[in-house]
Amino acid sequence: MPSSRRTYLAGVGVGLSTIIAGCSDESRPTSTPIASNWEQIGHDSRHTSANTSISNISQGDTHWRTELEANAEISGVAVIDNRIIAGGRREMERGFLSQISLGDGEILSSVELSTPVIAPPVLSENSVITTCRIDGQTGNLRSFDYEETERWSHRVAGTLPAPPAIHQSVVYGGSRKGEIFALEESDGDVRWERTLGDEQTEGAVSAPPTVDETGVYIPLSSSAAQGIYSLSPTDGTTKWKIEGPRILSILARTDDVLLVSYPSYDVAAFDIRTGERRWSTSLAEKEVSPPAVSDGIIVVADETTLYGLEAETGEERWSITCDPDTAYQPVIAGPTVLIQSENSLICCSVEDGEQLWTSDHSSGIPIVPFENGLLFSPAPNTLAAYSSYQE
């Protein structure tokens, strides 16, 4: 089955060894990870990076640690129930997809792929979609069932395609050549496709589409037509567009607005029906993370500070200095928000920004929460589960 890390690993199967380790303080045993779902890059196709059904993630330590072959590199992971789906690459030219037990880190099954997996898997109840690189000019999406049988493949123009999004049994994706498409989840048949951009500079879709019942929201860069597009989920026609901004990161859809992080200082909210700007807020530093949002609070980071903003107005509610890693979207798990820094993980209250705990662990992939902990990658070939101390 699949697995993944920041650049996306490759090669699972023969020769993998699993190491299970308890917490470092034997007097404080950690809790067994509890089943939860984090099926897409930002939790679901709206990419809010929030799972409000999780109760809390409190202070803890490493519950288990699984090491893959030395030449493996994890690109990212997703979770469905008690299973982790991980994808990645090995020796640059091959890939792997693995199913791992959430409870103890045991590798349940794996399949070696001929192409490296370069992004976290995207899951539904019936499908595992991997994003793969074929060569310097093309990539593809590959669909598997949970028995590891490949069902279909869809070729994508341009190197390093962004992961897709799944919504209501349709797979939405884009390419660095400005191609936008909707595929049937069951068989990969094209429902619709179109090209944004122009012949000379083309377009580039650098982040997964954000999708709901009303629209497919596309950030387009590297083109005279760059900007933000709202397309019809039914046929891909343009509903509205905002010309000009060069958006490189994932968009978040909440309530009646689309939240956008600019690659230079700003966070903005746009009306989901018209594209009209509701508000924008400038941050102190240039690099800005993708936004996460839950219960009317937006959490976003710049190079030095983590912020909580009012979703309705963009006004600052709280801020803490914590040297966050802006490459990653903050992760909201119930009442807490988790952010990576260069050498640690930091947990704060979403409500007021109070710092609840820090850990000296760091991760090379986007962290994924479960009910009482989170998954992280402390080394390119290693996956670990951090869970709360037993009470």
From TrEMBL:
SUPFAM superfamilies: Quinoprotein alcohol dehydrogenase-like. InterPro entries: PQQ_b-propeller_rpt, PQQ_rpt_dom, Quinoprotein_ADH-like_sf, WD40/YVTN_repeat-like_dom_sf. It comes from the Archaea. It holds the Pfam family PQQ_2. Residues 139-287 form the Pyrrolo-quinoline quinone repeat domain. This is PQQ-like domain-containing protein. It comes from Natrinema salifodinae.
